[in-house]
């Protein structure tokens, strides 16, 4: 493929990956306005965020087999069309419960881009290139936390929160056109790929039995859960505790998200001299240390607005190193089942993310403690899974070599 073709493909794949995060980030500044308009509180509106996470988790399990059976593009068309219709529905939502249901359905449409884009990276690029390509996708995905909250804050302030979903509808239509005109079909439909529940479960079972997949999928999921805890808790922390305005919150969110972009692009540079495994280990050690510092300082009451922003910025910088490398290492063992592996990885990630965001809301007490505690726990757990999983992978690899050598010796007798 030419450089121009590669750029077009990565650009479209990036926006397919970003549609979910963009849908989350853009309406966050509107939480107070939505709550006021629908006669409820922010905690109730936050449930629509949790329902979105649940929809993405469930949807990815559904789309994984579909993109392996029907090719990558046809399921994308269906998912994006569902997203457009439900986004229009969100503009007319008249209750918090209706918004919660519509956001669930919107997530079912959005997640097809996340599943198919990761599978297409595995289809179109070699194993040695995938971590670099995921870093480039992070450049586009990382733009969404910068643009989305800021844009959402201005749209909410000037036009009202309902127009946030009008903008999301227009974005989805543009992505749909990009898929049609610029994205090649990387995998032709496979009529022999069965969609019977027993076979589908068997394919997922084969994926989950791979120790490399389990290690890096859960490592990435737990690290990402810290990000979702921040997303769920930050509106209340910044706008209620620190009393920033909707526009100021959008700029703070954008500034912190800049760490993701910087680190994800620095990751591409580091991959020239270091392995993905080495980068993840150092990044998670730094993230765990930052998370502990953030939580301990919150308990002691020593952090003000600016120090809180700085520590969260550092925390999320580490995420820019973890995501691309954990994704690449998770999908590396798979080719035929890349769609199922991508779906299972995404479902694990969103499932753990949903749990962390829900816990922030459950333990909300008017302080930053629930958010910072869960962020720290997620980073520490991710580092622990990584170190334990790497040890298991080495043991199994050694056992496999021994068994192979034993078999060769027996065959020669």
Automatic annotation (TrEMBL):
Highest taxon above the source species: Bacteria
Keyword Translocase tagged: no
Subcellular location: Cell membrane
Membrane topology type: Multi-pass membrane protein
Keyword Cell membrane attributed: yes
Keywords tagged on the record: Cell membrane, Membrane, Transmembrane, Transmembrane helix, Transport
InterPro entries reported in the protein's UniProt record: Efflux_drug-R_Bcr/CmlA, MFS, MFS_dom, MFS_trans_sf
Transmembrane segment boundaries: 7-30, 42-63, 75-94, 100-121, 133-155, 161-183, 213-231, 251-270, 282-303, 369-387
Positions of the Major facilitator superfamily (MFS) profile domain: 9-393
Pfam annotation, one family: MFS_1
Entry similarity comment: Belongs to the major facilitator superfamily. Bcr/CmlA family.
Stated name of the protein: Multidrug effflux MFS transporter
Lineage: Bacteria, Pseudomonadati, Bacteroidota, Chitinophagia, Chitinophagales
